[in-house]
Amino acid sequence: xxxxxxxxxxxxxxxxxxxxxxxxxxxxxxxxxxxxxxxxxxxxxxxxxxxxxxxxxxxxxxxxxxxxxxxxxxxxxxxxxxxxxxxxxxxxxxxxxxxxxxxxxxxxxxxxxxxxxxxxxxxxxxxxxxxxxxxxxxxxxxxxxxxxxxxxxxxxxxxxxxxxxxxxxxxxxxxxxxxxxxxxxxxxxxxxxxxxxxxxxxxxxxxxxxxxxxxxxxxxxxxxxxxxxxxxxxxxxxxxxxxxxxxxxxxxxxxxxxxxxxxxxxxxxxxxxxxxxxxxxxxxxxxxxxxxxxxxxxxxxxxxxxxxxxxxxxxxxxxxxxxxxxxxxxxxxxxxxxxxxxxxxxxxxxxxxxxxxxxxxxxxxxxxxxxxxxxxxxxxxxxxxxxxxxxxxxxxxxxxxxxxxxxxxxxxxxxxxxxxxxxxxxxxxxxxxxxxxxxxxxxxxxxxxxxxxxxxxxxxxxxxxxxxxxxxxxxxxxxxxxxxxxxxxxxxxxxxxxxxxxxxxxxxxxxxxxxxxxxxxxxxxxxxxxxxxxxxxxxxxxxxxxxxxxxxxxxxxxxxxxxxxxxxxxxxxxxxxxxxxxxxxxxxxxxxxxxxxxxxxxxxxxxxxxxxxxxxxxxxxxxxxxxxxxxxxxxxxxxxxxxxxxxxxxxxxxxxxxxxxxxxxxxxx
Length: 669
Description:
The protein has six domains: 9-53, no CATH class; 70-215, Beta-Lactamase; 224-334, no CATH class; 349-520, P-loop containing nucleotide triphosphate hydrolases (Rossmann fold, 3-Layer(aba) Sandwich); 526-597, Helicase, Ruva Protein, domain 3 (Orthogonal Bundle), CATH 1.10.8.60; 606-669. Helix 13 (357-371) packs across helix 14 (386-396) and helix 20 crosses helix 21 (551-559). It is built from 26 helices and 21 strands. It is α/β, with parallel strands linked by helices. Residues 1-12, 285-294, 302-309, 316-353, 427-436 and 610-625 have low confidence and may be disordered. The strands form six sheets. It has a five-stranded antiparallel sheet with strand order 2-1-5-4-3, with helices on both faces. The longest helix has 22 residues, at 202-223. The chain is globular and about 90 Å long.
């Protein structure tokens, strides 16, 4: 046989095509296992990668593994009760459909442990001889390259035939498997079909993938969190509600989960999609009725000249007490030319991570008020997330199908704010548009008008706004017919409005119109669990992107008072992420000067003799101190600095929680 050298002239595709597949595999194994060279194109790249990962295992054979004892297997099955509940019906159905093929169908957990088997009794006996049975670990680390273990490792469907298995003792097997993925991209388990290699055909792999999609669909809809919404969409309305529909899980308008169909439609990987605003992916069109949501894919996600017809509906979050049905309007959009790719949206870390139980309780109460057509007033320091709260309120309200119009009263020049808000007729003033302008109040008709920093609104404009709220109509500058408007009002301010009223800088009648329901968002430094929540944000914004913080840098971030609240913290994290290389450990010197100064001030305040020592530093040693006293002092100081949180105090001291529990327990030695 002619020797094939990948990359050389003899490795031409013509010569390779003339070599029988079995000989190619023998040659690939000789090169990889005997000569230590790369098998090249003689095996699929997924198989070659797996061989390289398994190179520490003996290739010839491994001892026959013993299955788990019955009690341990039952325990593993119980731990995967939800997976088995949704997977076993498909397992049985797939086994029945493949009866003529004399194969078995297997379900494995996320660690590669086989939980259940069904199928051909004839092959079941043969499978048991190679330990292909419940209670046996078939991860790559235990059994080398195989469909179950490799599908788990790659998080992708794979077929392994005969000598493609790493272990020669498994060369009589053919298997095809698909991982079962959760909406967050994590592997929940593996569905596998194994048998004689000649019985694993292309249609077998297709059936396994289809069954896997059905299991994923049922699992995902059964386990989606109560604080999320689901966007369901498909080109054919008949696919809504089936395993072929595309699903996006959304929290606060930001994508936090997706199924395979959605990834395929959007042409993105989960890492690219996670934390992007839904508005970056779709254009929301005016709905045909209150139960429908019409969505058009953004042009850069579609192929030129391709007709995109999408049926979409929202499943409302459970906490708001309603669920939308699948009925929705069909939207058609034809893309005639390729649009340049839009830059990825800045991840909405502030939207996702500043939520907490108190905030969700406030949101639910504000939602009931807003849906009753009562204004909502949001107060709090700059950066606590007032606009984020308002947008969440809009998305959860009965006006979610209408526009959200945001106006920063402090940012628009006083000379222009009246025309911007209420609009003007043609020729109302020099420089006016020829056809006039409707104004932001009229643009908010049917939706929500958000007036940010309303405490900075000029007094004259306050009187006009009060008239609009009373009459529910707006008259543009320059005369013209008054136009009826119907909008919900949300206002926000960092000022103390009662003080402004007392000083004559805010109208009392407008204040009393707005203050029926107010929401006070606390500053970040005032939140009792702020260190845990900051630590969570650091993990999401930095840790998931391959960046690490040194102990000093992390303590500086956790201990900073963050006068700019969440906005400042998120901004610093984004800057660190932009400047840091994946895998790098960021040190104190990499942090902004404001964070380092905050750490220095904390250390100065914690110096011996300074009031309010809560940093957990050791007291100065003296003649009457010993190791026990120093230990006790360090434990108590750490517990005080962490507000009694033993887990955080243990991390600060670098000891296990159990050690701190013993030290902190009364009556300890």
